[in-house]
Amino acid sequence: MPPRWCKDAPIPISDAQVDDLRRIVLRTINKNQVLILTHIPRVPASITSILREISRKYQIPLSTLKRNAQILRDLNLIRYGEAPKFSGVEITELGQFISNLTTGEEPSLLGNMVKTRSGFVPFGSVTKTLRKRVLRMIAEAGSGHLGASLSAIDVLAILYFMKMRHDPSDPDWPERDRLVLSKGHAAPALYAVLAEAGYFPVESLSTLRRMGGMLPGHPEIRTPGIDASTGSLGQGLSIAVGMALAAKMDEASYRVYALLGDGELNEGQIWEAAATAAHHRLDNLTVIVDRNGYQLTGRTEDVKAPGSIVDKFRAFGWEVLDTDGHNPASILDALERCDMAPGGPSAVIARTTKGKGVSFMEGNQFSRKTPNARELERALSELT
Amino acid sequence: MMKLKMQASQVESFGKALLSIGLERDDLVVLDPDVSDSTKTAYFAERFPERFISVGISEQDMIGIAAGLAASGKTPVACGFAMFTSGRAWEQVANSVARSNLNVKVVGTHGGLSPSADGASHQAFGDVALMRVLPNMKVVVPADAPEAEEAIRTLVEWYGPSYLRLGRGSSPVVYDYGCEFTLGKATVLREGSDATIMANGIMVSMALITADKLVVEGIDAGVVDVHTVKPLDEASVDRAATETGAIVVAEEHSVIGGLGSAVAEFLAESRPTPVVRVGIRDRFGDSSRSYEDLLRKYGLTPDDIVEAVRASMGLRDRER
After folding, report:
1. CA distances from A175 to A164, A247, A250, A251, B95 (A)
2. pLDDT for B46-65, tens place per residue?
C-alpha cells in the first residue's frame, strides 16, 4: 500500500522506490532533524519553545537542536523568522513531504548506503560481512580476541564508514581524523574495517598473526591505516591526547578518537590521561568505551567493579554520553553530539555485548576460545 | 682524595640549549611532569608557553602524549627525573615510543647519585641499562655541561627515539662550550699506551684526574669519553683493546647493564680483553648532604679508578 503522501500523486511510485528515497532522506538528515520536523505542531508556535520541549523530552542539548533547526531552515524544510522580527515556525510543503517519509520510523542506519572498496553498499550488509571476516580471520590464525572484536565492530564501522574524515588512498593525509585502538586486542575488527574501506586488500586478512606479515596480533603503526601502535592496555588514550594537542597547536581541524575497553579502565594511566585531556580542554578528542562487561578472567563487576563509568568520566570533567553500542543510529548520534561538546573532551560509553552477532557467543566467555570448524560454520550461518 | 671542582650544571646548560633550539625550530615541544624548575625546562616554558605541556605528576601519561605528538609531526622532548622517565615510564617508552620508532627525546635528569640528599628513591643507577635494552633507542650520557648542550642539539637533529641522561647540580667541566660532539663516536681525550679508561658522565673528569695520578706511578693511561652508550663506538673500543689490552670502564651507574656491560659484551664476542668496571656494585643509594661523600661511599673516585687500572693491567699481564 502506498504511503499517504503519494495517494493522489500523478506519477506512480513503487514501494521499493519509497524505500530508496527513505534511505536517501535518512542519510541526508540526521535524527535530531527528524525529531524537529516531526514535532512542529499544526498551530503556530515559537521555534525556541518547540526546541526546548524536544531538548527536555529527549535529553538533547538545546544548542545542538538550534544548529539543526538552522540547517532545516536552510534546506527550506521549515520556515521561521529571526528575532526581533519573529514569527511562528511552520513546516514547508517539502518539509511535510520529508516528515511523512520518515514518520513512525526509528531512524536505523542499516539501510544507508556507505562507500566501501566495492562501491556503495547498505551499512547493514557491511557489518555482517565484517563479522564474518573477523570470525574467519581468528579461526584461521588459531588465536585472537574474538569476543572483544565482535563487540567493537559496530562502533568501528560507524567511525570509518560514516563519521571519520579519512582517505584510504592516502593513509598519512595530515588532515585525517585519527583513531587510536587503545584496546589493541580488537585488532582483527579494525583490520577487517580497514580492508573493507580500502586500505589494503581483503585477501591480506588471512595473514593475521602470521610472522613477517602486515597484520600482527596487536596494531603496529606500519600497517596502512593504523594511527598508533597499541596492545599494551592503558597507553592509547595518552597517545590520543598527544595527537589532539598537536592538532590544537597546528590549528588543524581533525578529530582524534580513542577506543577503550571497559576492562582497560583498570589501568591507572587512563585516568592520568583523562585528567590531562580535561585540563587542556581537548574538545577535539572523543573516547569510546566498549562496555561489553567482560575482561579476560571474568565479568568486570567481579574482577574489579568499575562503579559508574559515566560518573567517573564526568567527575574528570568530560562530557559523557551513554548509548547502545550496537545501534548504528545511536552511535552516530552520540558521536555527532560529541562534535559539539562545549570546550572539553567527550566520552561515549557504548553498551555492547561480547561476541555480538553470534548467538552462542553473546554475553558469555565462549568468545575467548578460538572457534573450531563446526563452530565457525554455525557462526557464519547466523550471519547470512 | 682530591677535591673535584664543581663548576657548571648540566641541567642549566641543557635548559638554555632547549630555549635556543626552540627559537630555531617550531616543531620542538617540551613536556614536563611538574619538575620544570629542577630540570630547567622552565626557561623554555617561559618563552614558549604554547609549546610547553605541563602534564602534572604523571610520567607514563607524559611519554604517551609525547608519542602522540611525534606521530603528528612534532619533536617532543619529555624531560623528568631519570628514575621516573626511564623507570616508571619504561614500558611506555618501549611500547608507545621505541616500538614505533617515534621521534621522542626522553631526558632523565638527576641521574646517578646526583640527587644526593634525596636518597635512594630518586637515585637512578639502572636507567642506562633500561634504555639501552630497547631497540631503536640511542643513549647518551654527556661528560659535562658543555657536552650536555651539544648532546641535546645533536639528538634533536637526529630522527628517532633517544635517551639523554644528565646529572643534577654542578659538576666538573672537561670541555669548552661549542665542543665537538658526534653521536656514536667516542672522544679520545688522552692517548695512553698502558691502559685505557673509558668513561662517561661525571666519571670522565675523574678519569682525567686518574690519568694524571698514574703518571707518578709510571703508568701511561689513555682516557676516552664514551658519551654515546648506544650505538656503541665499537671501532674506538676495538682500538683500545688492540693498543693497550687493559680496559677500565667507569660510570655513575650500576656495573650491571651500563657502559661497562656494553664494552664487555662487545669485546667478549670480538676481541676478548680484560675489562674492569668501576660503577655501583648492585646496591641501592643513600641520602647524603654531600655528593662527594656519596661518590666515595659507592666507589666512584679517581682512587677507585686507579685500583681498577692496576687490576686490568694485572689481568692482561697474567694472560700473556
Report:
1. 11, 9, 11, 11, 25
2. 999 999 999 999 999 999 99
Q: Which CATH number fits domain B187-319: 3.40.50.920, 3.90.550.10, 3.90.700.10, 3.40.50.10170?
A: 3.40.50.920
CB atoms A246 and B69 under 8 Å: yes
CATH number of A113-377: 3.40.50.970
Name which of B132, B140, B144 is nearest B156 in CA terms.
Answer: B140
**Dihedral sign from CA coordinates of B111, B113, B114, B120:** positive
- Alpha-carbon span B97 to B105, nearest angstrom: 10
Q: Is residue B232 within 8 Å of B183, Cβ to Cβ?
A: no
Q: Considering only the beta carbons, identify the residue of A238, A241, A275 that sits closest to B56.
A: A275
Instruction: For residue A154, give the C-alpha cell.
Output: 559496530
- CATH number of this structure's domain B8-171, picked from the four choices 3.40.50.2300, 3.40.50.970, 3.90.550.10, 2.60.40.10: 3.40.50.970
CB contact under 8 A, A240 and B68: yes
Q: Which of A152-161, A168-177, A348-357, A359-368 has the lowest average pLDDT?
A: A359-368
Indicate the helix (H) or strand (E) that contains A304.
helix A300-304
**CB distance A242–B70 less than 8 Å?**
yes
Mean pLDDT of B253-282: 98
Within 10 A of B186 (CB to CB), how many other CB atoms are there?
22
pTM for the full predicted model:
0.86
pLDDT on residue A6? 41
